Amino acid sequence: MSRAEPGSAALYHRVMVYLLFAILLLPLLGTFVYSIASSWSATILPSGFTFKWYLQLWSDPRFLNAFGQSLLVCVGALVLSVVLILPLLFVVHYHFPRLDALMNILILLPFAVPPVVSSVGLLQLYGSGPFAMVGTPWILIGCYFTVALPFMYRAITNNLQAINLRDLMDAAQLLGASTWQAAFLVVLPNLRKGLMVALLLSFSFLFGEFVFANILVGTRYETLQVYLNNMRNSSGHFTSALVISYFFFVLLLTWAANILNKDKSQ
């Protein structure tokens, strides 16, 4: 192979990657331009630019309330997931590794039932009686926990298999550490990256969840996606500003998590 052929192949790969990024970013760029356009109807380019839609959005108490409530529900569900999933995975992989095959089947059950069907059942079960939680954030936290469960389980399981849990625990105990000390001081720091990936994937998915939030709580505990649905008949510039704000919040969160993860790994 001549020297020109590897260079042309690298150029081809680079062009294809840049083209793919352009295709992915083009709708987002169009939404952003529309969100800062003062008027854009019958012309190729907007007649002017303004940030009044963003100012109107971030000064809206209803939006700020919905944003905060979405954060509260997502963080609550993820904290519950970490508290319950980490000990379960440790016990399964260290003491009962044969149960991993069964857990892989059970963990996919939330995806087997559509959210609409699950919501109807939950309305019947928790709509009245001693466990009436419909319209409260508690039922959303429980639903979001089941939605995040597969993401958390698979990401952390892959990390546990990569660090060779049994050998790591045996080595720590050989050096005098108890089971709890080995789990918290040796195993848990090695799960940082897997846990970070699981949390980011789960948060990004839960923050944009609509079906459970709309059916089970609606405007009684309005989340960001329910707010967006309720504002669909307002100005298109306003809803575009909302979509862009949502995207940049998730992007900023992912960037900050990656920076923190790199700093800790160095």
UniProtKB/TrEMBL annotation:
Ranges annotated as spanning the membrane: 15-37, 67-92, 104-126, 138-156, 168-188, 194-217, 238-260
Domain of life according to the entry: Bacteria
Compartment(s): Cell inner membrane; Cell membrane
Subcellular location, principal: membrane
Coiled coil start-end: none
Gene: potC1
Key words of the record: Cell inner membrane, Cell membrane, Membrane, Transmembrane, Transmembrane helix, Transport
Stored SUPFAM superfamilies: MetI-like
The family this protein is said to belong to: Belongs to the binding-protein-dependent transport system permease family.
Domain ABC transmembrane type-1: 67-257
Record protein name field: ABC transporter, permease protein PotC
Membrane topology according to the record: Multi-pass membrane protein
Record-linked InterPro entries: MetI-like, MetI-like_sf
BP GO terms, sorted: transmembrane transport
Keyword Membrane: yes
Cellular component terms (Gene Ontology): plasma membrane
Statement: the UniProt record of this protein carries the keyword Cell membrane: yes
